[in-house]
Amino acid sequence: MTQHRVQCFKDGHEVVLVIDGKSTVFPWELADIVASSLTANARKAEEYCKVNQIIADNALMQRAGFPLGLSDHPVIKDETIKEALYDRTLRRHLPSTRKDVANGLGNIQSKGVVGAPVLTKR
To answer: Is the whole model's pTM more than 0.90, yes or no?
Structure first.
């Protein structure tokens, strides 16, 4: 990973972003939009990089009965169910409590995987 020198400061009603000695000046309104977009995309990239840990943590939460998920990505949610149902370590440490439920779904304490909770600022 290449290291970059990043600085950000305000200059009156504008925001100055300096990356590796090259500066860009934004009005504060645009800087707000850019910051929101960068943060949202950084979280998506982080989710991609940490997908295996997210699936493992999600499966543990589902198996234990905590109904909230850590991701809204449909593939991650599908893999979470598989992990919660079939992971040997989870099955050993959090055994089934309802053997009467078909398809092994009694092994999962919660009613199902839901996506990550979202907080929005209005």
So the answer is: no
